[in-house]
Write a structure and sequence with these properties.
By secondary structure, the protein is α+β, with helices and mostly antiparallel strands. It has a single domain, classed as Pnp Oxidase, Chain A, CATH 2.30.110.10. Helices cover 38% and strands 26% of the residues. It is built from five helices and eight strands. Strands 1, 2, 3, 4, 5, 6, 7 and 8 form an eight-stranded antiparallel beta sheet that branches. The longest helix is centred in the N-terminal third of the chain and has 28 residues.
Length: 182
């Protein structure tokens, strides 16, 4: 009886190690097919669960709301941001060609919800040398493990009374309270 349980545990450990190794190889080589599988899995399973509380106070994930560059539909994508002075930093393990970033760059701005506060932000790709000091030691190790070379600065935008924004260190803007994808 115990031998079967031991075998089951060993098989599960080997499968887990194989999946982790495959993930690391895909992320390090930026293999397009592998990245597509990982992104599809995240979109279908991980993102749906994460969207429930992303951007709320105490959540480990933040939320970026953006408009589709071709469809015009509103989307919400869970991301992880790091404080970068008055702005925010995102590391891009899949590269800079992900859909949400292409949408944000095409629109020129997006809404970012962090710890219950909503900010209007503009995207700017930054060099690793400028980004790495803002990551914790553990996150720098993960970035090295996955060979992350793409980083995004989300610069806060001041919102005027007419709704027009000008780049500046600004506070939060009002939020409609709606979470998730419309």
């Amino acid at each position: 009886m115990w031998s079967w349980i031991l075998w089951a545990v060993v098989v599960l450990l080997v499968l887990g190690l194989a999946c982790f190794t495959a993930l690391v190889l895909v992320m390090r080589t930026k293999n397009p097919r592998g990245l597509a599988v990982v992104r599809r899995f995240n979109r279908r399973f991980t993102n749906r669960r994460t969207l429930r509380h992303a951007g709320e106070a105490g959540s480990s994930n933040d939320l970026i709301r953006h408009v589709g560059r071709r469809s015009g539909m509103r989307y919400a994508t869970p991301i992880g941001v790091y404080p970068m002075g008055d702005d925010f930093l995102v590391y891009l393990p899949y590269g800079s060609g992900v859909d949400w970033l292409r949408n944000v760059r095409a629109a020129g701005s997006a809404e970012l919800r962090v710890d219950g506060q909503t900010y209007v932000v503009t995207p700017e790709i930054v060099e690793p040398a400028a980004a790495l000091p803002y990551l914790s030691a553990a996150d720098r190790r993960v970035a090295r493990l996955f060979r992350v070379t793409d980083f995004l600065a989300l610069r806060r935008v001041a919102v005027g009374s007419d709704g027009a924004g000008a780049p500046a260190a600004a506070g939060p803007v009002a939020d409609d309270g709606a979470g998730g994808t419309p």
